[in-house]
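Backbone shapes recur. Consider a single case.
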Amino acid sequence: MNNSDTSTGPSFSLGNRLLRLIWNVAYILLFRFSPRPLHPWRAVLLRMFGAKVGRGVHVYPAVKVWAPWNVDLGDQCGIGDGVTLYSQGKITIGKLAVVSQGTHLCAGTHDYTKAGFPLLTAPISIGERAWLAAEVFVHPGISIGEGCVVGARSVVTKDMPAWQVCAGHPCKPLKERKYE
């Protein structure tokens, strides 16, 4: 984990667990099976549960959000079907960024060196105009730079620089991204 904001995660109080239970019921009944074009409806639901959602955001119905109150979506970003926002820690997605289908953003892990494997959280930041292609996995504490493209099925274990095309397992910068 590269981000210095790594912290021992919350103990998940009874209040937190109840809020997640209520969110899961709302997700199943009102979010998951909403018609595909109803992006504004899903944005309202996310806001009701504490997410910061910009204008013109497209979140598709099969997106899985663990804790909306830890999600910040910039204007006109797109989150494709099958994306998992495992938001035990903060996840920020910048303006005009695209997170393609099947991508997994994982903002939590466990300290395997301690008994009970306590939860550790670390924020994930996706820069403006970045594109995470299909089925990318992003580890906790990672920053993807502005305009960065991450190739399909890449595993991102380190921060990726701005305006680069990156790919692989582990993901690494390959070349400059030309943008018109």
In short: Residues 14-31 form the longest helix (18 residues). The domain at 7-176 is CATH 2.160.10.10 (UDP N-Acetylglucosamine Acyltransferase; domain 1).
